[in-house]
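Format is chain and fold; as here:
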Amino acid sequence: MAHNKDVILAADAFDLSVALGCSPDTVEDLRGMGVLASQGELWEVGAARDYLRDAAWADSLWH
């Protein structure tokens, strides 16, 4: 999986969830897995976007 170097400014999990198009609970899961990296209020979200895209693609295979 190629990692993008997308960095966004987000004040909280809600801002991250809006930027990533997922729920705040999913943001917390991604943080716990180490997929999201914080740099103060700047967040490295490239890997999280890749993860969510791949998970959505894999999920569509099962429907």
Q: What stands out?
A: Residues 7-61 form one domain. The beta strands are 7-9, 37-39, 42-44. The mean pLDDT is 82.
